[in-house]
Amino acid sequence: MNGGSFGQRGSYGSLPCYGKLSTIARKQSSKMPPASSRDKERVLLVVCRCLGRRRVAMLLLVALALLVFIWGSLTVSKETTSPIVRPMDSIHFDNSDILSHPSVACRSRANSILDHPCHKFALPPPPPSGGRRFGPRPCPVCYISAEQARASIPCSSSASPVLRNLTYVVDENPIKIESHGGSEFGGYPSLKQRNESSDIQEAMTVHCGFVKGNRPGRQTGFDIDEADLMKLEEFHEVIVASAIFGNYDIIQQPKHVSEAARKNVPFYMFIDEETETYLKNSSALDSNMRIGLWRIIVVHNIPYTDARRNGKVPKLLLHRLLPNVRYSIWIDGKLQLVVDPYQVLERFLWQQNASFAISRHYHRFDVFEEAEANKAAGKCDNSSIDYQIEFYKKEGLSPYSKAKLPITSDVPEGCVIIREHIPITNLFTCLWFNEVDRFTARDQLSFSTVRDKIMAKVDWSINMFLDCERRNFVIQAYHKDLLDHMPPPVAHVIRHPPPLHRDSSAGRNPSKNSRRGRDRRSGSKQHRKAAAGNREKQTFL
């Protein structure tokens, strides 16, 4: 009776495969397969009994559909590695294969640069001039997405060659003993102390501003309110900073900032009391001391009378004002950031395994040429510039040449600084500030002198990227004084032709209208002639 059940159809109208398998098993019974084989056959028999042929076919179709879906997903993910042209002629990659999962907060520095999707990116050739002279302009830059850039933050800090512990001079009563010894805020470092600060040791103590007091911003000159100081001492992976002193610029709001950056990256704008008064009178500053993304930090008791020199304090000594920050992007007050901070850091620091990045000057590479250009533009007193250059010449400064390669330039475009806060970069900006404090405020003149002295002692370098790349992620505006003196824009007057006078005959045959117009004009002429003849007759009479 049990054998009759083999012929029954399953629930989906298909014959069970149990009968065939049992027949095959009987034919091969003489061979007596192993116990494991018999167990497998029993499992198959149970499956075939429970499932009809149609169910098995449907399962196979579902499995095939899943395979097709997975293959298609892999194809799409490979296609996303191709560059996508975005505004500002930037190129973005969305390749998640080289980066950690977004939930991972950092990546290992051991990742090879050769595996990066931007590794093979090359700048396109410049457009033909066609006889016209083009000024500086942005060029394409390869970025990965903001989310992937944030996931690529290095887990560990970059190595600081030789220098491990950097502390700063504290002097409550600094005394000026040399004619060009700097300022009270800088502590009047002597030439001997200046020379010793270039001898890199494992532990060093150098002048770095804020000499009066143990904590920058508290009765040191460049004083900051206590609530703001507590905010500045918080830990952050990344910050963006800028400054406006003397009401010299108009605050520019960043654009294209990701939600992650808006939430995790503070934007600090340092201003003096003069700029604060202007912002309050213009109703731009809200009750939370914010203007858009910028958190406004008011500085009291500024150390210099020159607004541009005051701006060098947060620009070069940012690590002293924000001691618990890993990475910072500095932009001058006249600039507008138009690329996400994580993308900028990934492109110019993390991707290059660099700890300090700054763009080259778009036109000049030589300090001597830069000095002459500053004098011609009236940027500073000519005698002060000459004194500084002559001093550097005695120390060995020479014109830039190809012999300095791989150093590509001696003159930076210093309005943007991208850096990691580690002892060697902190030392570099301290010594750079000391030169600005001692000589002129034109930091382009002293940059190469400080850089070359450190590079002569330790294995450290600076990523000097192209100026057109800098112009890709920041837009430069005019200084406020130039805008105030600019004439208002002239309204373009569009002169329209006088309207045609249409009579009731409008819409009729134009040939008839023109004919009638000619007749009317000829009739008026005849009428004038007849009137003139009548007047002549009257005179003769």
TrEMBL record:
Compositional bias annotation for Basic residues: 513-530
Top-level taxonomic group: Eukaryota
Coiled coil, from the record: none
Region of interest: Disordered: 489-541
Domain TOD1/MUCI70 glycosyltransferase-like as annotated: residue spans: 166-479
Keyword check for Transmembrane: yes
UniProtKB keywords: Membrane, Transmembrane, Transmembrane helix
Positions of transmembrane segments: 56-74
One Pfam family cited in the UniProt record for this chain: TOD1_MUCI70
Protein name: TOD1/MUCI70 glycosyltransferase-like domain-containing protein
Organism: Populus alba x Populus x berolinensis
